[in-house]
Design brief:
Blueprint (H helix, E strand, L loop, with lengths): L2 E5 L2 E4 L9 E6 L2 E10 L2 E9 L8 H26 L8 E3 L5
Length: about 100
């Protein structure tokens, strides 16, 4: 389970056996959601946050923080996904402790 970011206590990661569409999981405490990236001709056109079966989704402030993070770091997340799953590279973990907006 490669951990790629931590933003204000929200852990952002991939599971090692992921599948397309490109997506990332976000977890804080017992709450977990995922964000799927829809890419057309190399450009992120849409990001959908989805619930995960059997898990309580992120809510309130944590959900808004995750959405804010995705706005700023979407390209970097996709880059790390491709590096890890396509090129089989290790990806660096980054901790962000200050609000980005």
């Amino acid at each position: 389970m490669p951990k790629i970011f931590e933003y204000l206590g929200i852990l952002i990661f991939f599971y090692s056996n992921e599948h397309e569409p490109i997506h990332v999981h976000a977890k804080k405490g017992e709450f977990e959601s995922k964000a799927e990236f829809y890419i057309v001709e190399g450009v992120i056109k849409e990001i959908k946050i989805k619930n995960i079966k059997g898990r309580e989704p992120l809510k309130g402030k944590e959900l808004r923080d995750f959405e804010e993070f995705l706005e700023m770091y979407a390209d970097k997340i996709v880059e790390k996904w491709i590096d890890y799953f396509v090129y089989h590279k290790n990806v660096d973990f980054e901790r962000i402790t200050k609000r980005i907006k």
